[in-house]
Amino acid sequence: MFRLSKDIDSAFQGVGTKGGLEVWCIHNNQLISIPKSSFGRFHSGNAYLLLSTALRKIGSPQYDIHYWLGHDATEVDSVLASDKALELDAALGCCTVQYREVQGQETEKFLSYFKPCIIPVEGKYSPQNGLAEETYPVTLLMCKGDHAVRVKEVPFLRSSLNHDDVFVLDTASKVFLFAGCNSSTQEKAKALEVVEYIKDNKHAGRCQVATIGDADAGEFWTFFGGYAPIPKCSSSTNQEQTPTTCAKLLWIDTRGNLHPTETSSLNKDMLEKDKCYMLDCDSEVFVWMGRNTSLTERKTSISSSEEFLRKEGRSTSTSLVLLTEGLENARFRSFFDEWPQTAESSLYNEGREKVAAMFKRKGYDVEEFSDEEDEPLYTNCRDAVKVWRVDGGDVSLLSIHDQAKLFSGDCYIVHMEEDRADAISNASAIVSSTKGESVMCHIHQGNEPARFYSMFQSLVVFKGGLSKRYKTTFLVENANECESKASLFRVQGTSSRSMQAIQVDLVGSLAATSLNSSYCYILKNEASVFTWIGKLTSESDHDVLDRMLYFLDPSRQPMTTREGSEPDTFWDLLGNDVLKAKEVYNFVQDDLTTEDVLLLDCQTEVYVWIGLNST
């Protein structure tokens, strides 16, 4: 059990020890614990605090904190809710991710905690009965979402109805379900769950349920003054435009003043441990808090960020996420050009040191091998390699410039000149086996030995060919005709003395399958050059990428992108449609919708579930 400091509310004693949800309401400037039976009932006149605890089989629990602000909540309550979220984070050891939730604009992660939905209640929370006194007015609700359902009250008017959404009309004696003809099957199913929720929670199970297809559907239209056709066009048919994201980093001083950084290129090294920062990404805002900052500094930084959003007149849908150093999510990291992955290496180094210490205690001498010994033997072949291209019955010697550029459709003869002394010093085993005579190696593309690559130091392998036989076989008139199109090269190598760029397939919608998280790539055409950095690559891989890019095309400055943060222009050049995926939180079997394609990541296994009605 942790010990609370004087700056942390006593209401947080014992929190986070059990999995599930814990909810508090701000009432009379104090935290009131909400009983489980009232979870999901949020009053528009209050602010709430929620803790989600996930106990994992291995490792520490995972905590997510949300503070929910009702439309009619006072500014005092709203500020207090954000302060209490920070205190709760401190009570849990500063290892949480915090989210601000605004009524009507809640994140899908928040909505997923409450099945099937949340329907905010007008008025203020009363600790005596959990509900404020209220009459039962007729309300019209719009339901949107295939997994996490957003329920929003709309004006009780015929003009609120449209053909694209699903609506619930809640009256004192009956609940109606109206589904537009263009609404999805999944939305209709989720809306039906909302109807059952309203029946059980607002009518104590004592009311009738009707859909517009029933025989008594005419009763529905009497609430709107009689039946009349609904216009075909509706505002909900407009496609949402994805705004262009331009991230801006601002430092927040101890007084809450914001200081913009003077560079548009973001790097993790810019984030100092004793400071707080705001990352403004237009539709979403992150507050990053260094490990060495105090609770007071963190409260000040959050208040300053919220005040900034108010002064800027930002939409209430703007997401505000609070992150502590070391707990940055993938979305936050994607806005930085450089974000080294140090967790794995630090764990490796820690384990290596423990093993070494254990052996030393047993009396064994421990000696660590240098990483350089993992590299293949290197032979300096500069100005000593000759390469011929086989063209039918002709053999042509390539120039020094061209001999490091091979084509996959041609055959070559490579000869390395070295005297016996060099051979003995660099490859004594080979010399002994051949008695000093030349060695002939038959090498197939894709199976090159390390020694072959080290002969060239820098090597580019292009797809296609320049020989007459290749052109005749594949009906190619001009081997350079594809140079104006995009080319994708996989960069590999062990060091600057042995590095290669191998051109890979770039075929329409399958082009993305050529990308591998363990490699770096160069994507280029006549107009632009991109470098793509896989998530599993190392600093040495990045160094090889920079060197290989200069060797391949030294005249142009590339646009660097990391896996997971690719701009649309990258996918356009790659020839791919942009495929976007969103996470389904707290999923259940009902989330296997027949209209979707879903991916289940089980770490060691990945499953793809394809719905019967998916396109």
Map the helices and strands.
Layout: E1 20-27, E2 30-33, E3 47-54, E4 62-69, H1 75-91, E5 96-102, H2 108-111, E6 139-144, E7 150-154, E8 166-170, E9 174-179, H3 185-202, E10 208-211, H4 218-222, E11 248-252, E12 258-260, E13 276-280, E14 284-289, H5 295-312, E15 319-324, H6 330-333, H7 343-361, E16 385-391, E17 394-397, E18 405-407, E19 411-416, H8 420-434, H9 450-456, E20 458-462, H10 468-473, E21 487-495, E22 498-504, E23 520-524, E24 529-533, H11 539-552, E25 559-562, H12 568-574, E26 597-601, E27 606-610
Parallel strand pairs: 4-5, 9-10, 14-15, 18-20, 20-22, 24-25
Antiparallel strand pairs: 1-2, 1-3, 3-4, 5-15, 6-7, 6-8, 8-9, 11-12, 11-13, 13-14, 16-17, 16-19, 21-22, 21-23, 23-24, 26-27
Helix pairs in contact: 1-5
Task: Tell me about this structure.
The chain has 615 residues and is an alpha+beta fold. It folds into five domains: 102 residues, Severin; 90 residues, Severin (3-Layer(aba) Sandwich); 86 residues, Severin, CATH 3.40.20.10; 190 residues, 3-Layer(aba) Sandwich (Severin); 35 residues, no CATH class. Helix content is 22%, strand content 25%. The strands form five sheets. The protein has a ten-stranded mixed beta sheet, with helices on one face. The protein has a seven-stranded mixed beta sheet with strand order 18-20-22-21-23-24-25. A five-stranded mixed beta sheet has the order 7-6-8-9-10, covered by helices on one side. Helix 1 packs antiparallel against helix 5. The protein is globular and about 95 Å long. About 6% of the residues have low confidence.
